[in-house]
Amino acid sequence: MSPHTVGTTVVPESAAAHPATVRTRDWLIVAAAAIVALIALYAVFIDNGNLVSATGSYLHEFSHDGRHLFGAPCH
Amino acid sequence: MSVSAQPTPYPLLPLLGRGLAAGGIAGLASGLFSLLLAEPLMDRAIRLEEKRSAAEAAHSHAGHSGHSHAAEAEEIFSRGTQHLGLVVTAVVAGLAIGVFFTLAHALVHRSAARDDGRGWQRAMGLAGAGFLALSLLPALRYPANPPGVGDSGTVAERQGLWLAALVIGVLGMVLAHQVHQRLGRAGHGLPVRQLGAAAAVVATLGALFLLPGNPDPVPVSATLLWDFRVLSLAGHLVLWAVLGAAFAAPALRSAKAAKREGAPESR
């Protein structure tokens, strides 16, 4: 009853119906989204004035409460 | 888009859309939860911190010895803006986590059939693993601290430790999954597989405690600290639970619709 036993009957069909190029493109899109997501997480949880620092740590102060609550280190 | 929905087990792009939507909803739910329950506590913590630093300043006539946390925060944004910032932060974090949730789902369940009726178990199982890896285990080593705790001189060091804890948490859950799968392939039953996975989780917790502890003093009351940490973990829990449920919901609906249409076997 594991997903794998079900999967073995489905995989050969799907490989034929779904061209490898489309699958590669989809994985690239997901990889790009993951990179954007990492930058976003850096901005809200880590940055202390490296990204936006006109007069100090704007991002740090804006996301200040979120950082404390999510357990991210805060000054 | 040339994605044909029918034959593929979990086509990737619709999955990404679902992950983003579920992540956004989960972040909003968690942010509003924290706004209602945790913000009064944080406001109180900041008032106490201001009182503490004012008393310190009165004691030492040398004046300001370093920037106060609360005073510095007030210079740039009002508390009201920071309340909004909490919700925005939670939504951004939810969207980003939604992307990685999609990625993990696509990798872990790449050979699973789409409509085998186990979509809910898969999503909630993955959400539980995410909660353990990124919330509970790291929080047991480095619990969240309210405003008023945290020395700006050690922030880089603490960020390094926190990130290390997150990485160890994720690696630990990958290990637990691998142990679970391998024991299954070796012909062991569910009790052995689950005990093996649990041992991996305990080992991960042990590894986390090999990291050096948080170097900062904690000059706040135990009650405030406990309440804050419980609410922090609750906020994490809301995020992961809503993420898993919202991610699985469309699959549940389509499975129900397929049943109603009288399809004898939906794939």
Automatic annotation (TrEMBL), chain A:
<keyword id="KW-1133">Transmembrane helix</keyword>
<protein>
    <submittedName>
        <fullName>CbtB-domain containing protein</fullName>
    </submittedName>
</protein>
<feature type="transmembrane region" description="Helical">
    <location>
        <begin position="27"/>
        <end position="45"/>
    </location>
</feature>
<keyword id="KW-0472">Membrane</keyword>
<keyword id="KW-0812">Transmembrane</keyword>
TrEMBL record, chain B:
<feature type="transmembrane region" description="Helical">
    <location>
        <begin position="160"/>
        <end position="180"/>
    </location>
</feature>
<keyword id="KW-0472">Membrane</keyword>
<feature type="transmembrane region" description="Helical">
    <location>
        <begin position="231"/>
        <end position="252"/>
    </location>
</feature>
<dbReference type="InterPro" id="IPR012666">
    <property type="entry name" value="CbtA_put"/>
</dbReference>
<keyword id="KW-0812">Transmembrane</keyword>
<dbReference type="Pfam" id="PF09490">
    <property type="entry name" value="CbtA"/>
</dbReference>
<keyword id="KW-1133">Transmembrane helix</keyword>
<feature type="transmembrane region" description="Helical">
    <location>
        <begin position="12"/>
        <end position="38"/>
    </location>
</feature>
<protein>
    <submittedName>
        <fullName>CbtA family protein</fullName>
    </submittedName>
</protein>
<feature type="transmembrane region" description="Helical">
    <location>
        <begin position="120"/>
        <end position="140"/>
    </location>
</feature>
<feature type="transmembrane region" description="Helical">
    <location>
        <begin position="84"/>
        <end position="108"/>
    </location>
</feature>
